[in-house]
Amino acid sequence: MSPWKAAHPGDAFEDIDTPALVLDLDAFERNLARMTQALAGSKMRLRPHAKSHKCPDIALRQIQQGAIGICCQKVSEAARFVEAGVKDVLITNQIVGARKVAHAMDLAARATIGVLVDHPSQVAQFDHASQERKTTIDVYIEVDVGMGRCGVSSVQEVTDLAQQITAAPYLRFMGLQCYHGSAQHYREPEQRQAAIRQASDIAVTMRHALEKLGIKVERITGAGTGSVALERDSGVFNEVQSGSYVFMDADYAKNHQGPQDVQFEHALFVKTGVMSRPTADRAVVDAGLKASSVDSGLPVVWKKPGVHYTKASDEHGVLQTEQANDPALGDFVLLIPGHCDPTVNLYDELICYRAGKVEAVWPITARGAAL
Amino acid sequence: MSPWKAAHPGDAFEDIDTPALVLDLDAFERNLARMTQALAGSKMRLRPHAKSHKCPDIALRQIQQGAIGICCQKVSEAARFVEAGVKDVLITNQIVGARKVAHAMDLAARATIGVLVDHPSQVAQFDHASQERKTTIDVYIEVDVGMGRCGVSSVQEVTDLAQQITAAPYLRFMGLQCYHGSAQHYREPEQRQAAIRQASDIAVTMRHALEKLGIKVERITGAGTGSVALERDSGVFNEVQSGSYVFMDADYAKNHQGPQDVQFEHALFVKTGVMSRPTADRAVVDAGLKASSVDSGLPVVWKKPGVHYTKASDEHGVLQTEQANDPALGDFVLLIPGHCDPTVNLYDELICYRAGKVEAVWPITARGAAL
């Protein structure tokens, strides 16, 4: 962590030290409102994914605007949000190992906690720990609905796991995790539609099989920012987990939008300063790999035509420029991160601004909480 | 930051929670010794780059083994090392803006601090601030020796800057920064040789021009882990700045080695656990983009033939496996990070182990110190 801060509330936007992660509060609040509006009247629960922001100040605002809780990806991440007052957290991951299970059960004594399973031994671990503590925890079966990562694929596996869960006295079987991660980044609306149709069909098949056994499926949960309107309109899902909509990154902006898609806008930027101006067509800024994630492509320069971010090294970013003095040495530019989630995870603080002034500095409390 | 620790001193290696950044102390110490030995008798000063490890415990060990100080990339990073007792830091970057200059000058009152310049206005800033405080700071001119990032290219620029620096009462002109970053990753020894020969030729041209003006060039500094023997044998450089040699990453391991190259070994790993085992040919581990940087390629599985890391998402890593139960759910594997510097920057602690036991936990004090 830096020994000093990039900015304090009340500072002028132009005085924020670089590199810094900055949030346009007006755009952020419009994104929150758009999601609320997009789900209004749909009976769809919103459980936004907090892995995108890792910031309790944002989670609490999402809940204030109607979210029923949040998702997290790791137990240690969930702990940060429970500490901050979030009462309902679904950890959208398999939790393996006695230590992690114990931490999850500690949280379950303080808040509503859900976990995913895709193997009998995960259920057995939680059965054992929950009985020992006489503490209830929610359990969801992850179904592989097309992304080929975690999750079971067959009806048999789903019904076996559900029976194992319902037989466990302190495990509450809640339903199915049916998240299609790859679909979020399919560029064409038709590709996303086809993927979520397939995911919905699989979810229905699994639900029917469970209902035939008398097992109630209370929740079918999934969806990301790229597909949220499709799950909303599916008639199958009843909870959505979008995370990136609060920020929007350069990768999501590459998705071609269909008529049904919800329009979000860029709210998160890396403010970076020009530290070297060696040639007329090259400026070097102070944001490289440790300031903006490049796994989903390089960051994109915001509202500066003719200026392109072309190369990232550890702490240098190379801009190609059309003019020798724009940006000049000491100027700053804003970058739209290629991928917001791992970019946020590089910072300890989010500098929130409005109307040219820093309004708040929010700690990114769950940064680095990977356990 | 996680609310709990991955391990404590005395824990068994197998009990380190995942994902965790772990250091094989025997391999690390062999790497330190190899660098000392490689430079022995060469009159070459070693000033290792601390951007690779961001860890004062490592910097102090490097200095104990003969390093004359360290390099940093950012002022805030340098501050962390000065606080920890490092007496000599070269910030291998241009420092722009009154706030950053003030911080650098604060450090210069407590330790020997060097900075790079490649523009008259950077010199002017430091001239002004150093006079105001009557505090001396070392200044190096960065020369673009072939990597096309920062640095001046012409003799005229070098001599102009050097005259400006020598005329400033509290600026001490030290010499030339001649780092060829791209050369570190050229795969063939001949390519690296050609690049460092060119860098050396440029450095000599600049030094001669300065000497003609009666300006002494005390230091010609540069080199990374991929080229260190070349700068050592150049007859031109008198200081090397290698950083990654303490750890070695998967990208450096792709360099074909020539007879003159110094052999370092992998000492840094991400320990990751299998959390899902959905198919016979797929295991999913708990280390994704937030646990291992992918900018220079995916991490490589250590000593486990037939097991390959094939895909990273935020907190998932997909392994392709030849056997259905190896690794099994709950097992761990070690990953060699694709690029050590940005991987280290994801973690708050480095778990150091030897002979199957955790020997120490070193804080990565300068993680996220990007200002």
Describe the structure.
- 2 copies of one chain form a homodimer.
- By secondary structure, chain A is an alpha/beta fold.
- Chain A folds into 2 domains: 13-22 and 265-363, Beta Barrel (Lyase, Ornithine Decarboxylase, Chain A, domain 1), CATH 2.40.37; 42-243, TIM Barrel (Alpha-Beta Barrel).
- Chain A contains 10 helices and 17 strands.
- In chain A, helix 3 (75-83) runs parallel beside helix 4 and helix 4 (98-108) packs across helix 5.
- The two termini of chain A are 19 Å apart.
- The relative contact order of chain A is 0.17.
- Chains A and B meet through helix 3, helix 4 and strand 10 of A and helix 3, helix 4 and strand 10 of B.
What key attributes describe this structure?
8-stranded parallel β-sheet, Lyase, Ornithine Decarboxylase, Chain A, domain 1, 17 strands, alpha/beta, 371 residues, 9-stranded mixed β-sheet, TIM Barrel, homodimer
CATH topology of the largest domain in chain A, what is it called? TIM Barrel
Q: What is the top-level CATH class of the largest domain in chain A?
A: Alpha Beta
The CATH homologous superfamily of the largest domain in chain A is named: Alanine racemase
Number of domains of chain A: 2
- Shape by Cα distribution of chain A: globular
Mean pLDDT of chain A: 97
Structural class of chain A: alpha/beta
How many strands appear in the DSSP assignment of chain A? 17
**What would you call the quaternary organization?**
homodimer
Output the radius of gyration of chain A.
Answer: 22 Å
The H/E string of chain A reads: EHEHEHEHEHEHEHEHEHEEEEEEHEE
Which regions of chain A have little confidence, pLDDT < 50, spanning 5+ residues? none
Strand content of chain A: 15-25%
The number of helices of chain A is 10
> What is the makeup of the main sheet of chain A?
9 strands, mixed
